[in-house]
């Protein structure tokens, strides 16, 4: 509990960055991508793979440069995806030196860490950028409520082979907590979008928990406990933002496809 409180205090500056938005959130997302990809690749290296850092850092630079100069041109993003996919495949041309997992880990890291986290920037630059708060309300609200619900009444294991401490009761409590937090946000801040915020609270919580479990699956396969030790009690950047990586795209596409008001 003490480490969670310390970590919560460490994360407080994030609220200021989200409030300021614009170049602040752009820079923060870029930093998360850069640190996160290093943590992710280090995990793969522990499992024997050799992902290409140069391709990953070039991918980050190209993606954020394209956004800086043409933030609303989705064609550049599609071109970026093609280039990164092709580059990861070309990386494997030296079949005598590199293995299949070297190519796949390179591409997976970029799409998972860099592209997923990039959706934070896309939400901030959307017409309804205030809904960026739902990413964090859903992800962290789910984590908090799942923890306390699981501690109080958790009896049935959710995924014992991935995360032995997580329970079905905790997962349900996490969903309920996310719906309540996001619903209150909608009621107080955007009453015309109350229904949408509730839907996001529900879907966001599911994706947040899938993100958490996916990170656990990776760490199990990599043979590591944490991705890093940057944040006390929570390991590295990815250990804290694993749920956000899944929730951000879910919120962004809800904004795109669900009519507000």
Multimer state: single chain
The secondary-structure class comes to mainly alpha
Integer-rounded radius of gyration: 19 Å
Question: Which sheet architecture does the biggest sheet show?
Answer: 2 strands, antiparallel
Cα-to-Cα separation, first versus last residue: 40 Å
In what range is the share of β-strand residues? Answer: under 5%
In total, how many beta strands? 2
Instruction: Assign a percent range to the helix content.
Output: over 70%
- Outline, from the CA principal axes? globular
**What is the H/E order?**
HHHHHHEEHHH
Mean pLDDT, as a whole number?
Answer: 90
Low-confidence stretches: none
Tally of helical segments? 9
* Strands side by side in the biggest sheet: 1-2
Indicate the topology.
Elements: H1 2-20, H2 23-46, H3 53-69, H4 74-90, H5 100-124, H6 132-153, E1 157-159, E2 163-167, H7 168-189, H8 194-222, H9 237-257
Antiparallel strand pairs: 1-2
Helix pairs in contact: 2-3, 2-5, 3-4, 3-5, 4-5, 5-9, 6-7, 6-8, 6-9, 7-8, 8-9
Brief characterization of the structure:
With 261 residues, the protein is mostly helical. It has helices at residues 2-20, 23-46, 53-69, 74-90, 100-124, 132-153, 168-189, 194-222, 237-257; strands at residues 157-159, 163-167.
Describe the structure.
This protein is 75% helix and 3% strand. The chain is mostly helical. The protein has a two-stranded antiparallel sheet with strand order 1-2.
Salient structural properties:
two-stranded antiparallel sheet, 261 residues, single chain, 9 helices, 75% helix, 3% strand, mainly alpha
């Amino acid at each position: 509990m003490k480490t969670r409180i310390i970590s919560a205090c460490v994360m407080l500056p994030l609220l200021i960055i989200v409030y300021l938005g614009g170049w602040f959130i752009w820079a923060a997302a870029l930093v998360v991508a850069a640190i996160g990809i290093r943590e992710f690749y280090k995990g793969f290296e522990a499992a024997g793979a050799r992902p290409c850092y140069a391709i990953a850092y070039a991918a980050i630079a190209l993606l954020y440069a394209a956004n800086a100069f043409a933030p609303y041109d989705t064609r550049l993003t599609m071109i970026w995806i093609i280039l990164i996919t092709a580059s990861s495949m070309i990386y494997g041309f030296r079949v005598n030196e590199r293995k299949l997992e070297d190519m796949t880990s390179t591409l997976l890291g970029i799409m998972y860490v860099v592209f997923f986290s990039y959706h934070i920037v896309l939400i901030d630059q959307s017409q309804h950028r205030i809904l960026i708060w739902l990413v964090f309300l859903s992800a962290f609200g789910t984590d908090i409520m799942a923890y306390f619900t699981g501690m109080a009444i958790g009896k049935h294991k959710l995924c014992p082979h991935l995360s032995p401490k997580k329970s079905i009761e905790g997962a349900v409590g996490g969903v309920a907590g996310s719906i309540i937090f996001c619903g209150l946000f909608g009621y107080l801040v955007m009453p015309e979008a109350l229904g949408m915020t509730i839907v996001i609270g529900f879907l966001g919580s599911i994706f947040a928990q899938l993100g958490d479990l996916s990170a656990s699956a990776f760490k199990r396969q990599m043979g590591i406990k944490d991705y890093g030790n940057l944040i006390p009690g929570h390991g590295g950047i990815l250990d804290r933002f694993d749920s956000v990586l899944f929730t951000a795209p879910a919120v962004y596409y809800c904004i795109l496809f669900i009519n507000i008001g």
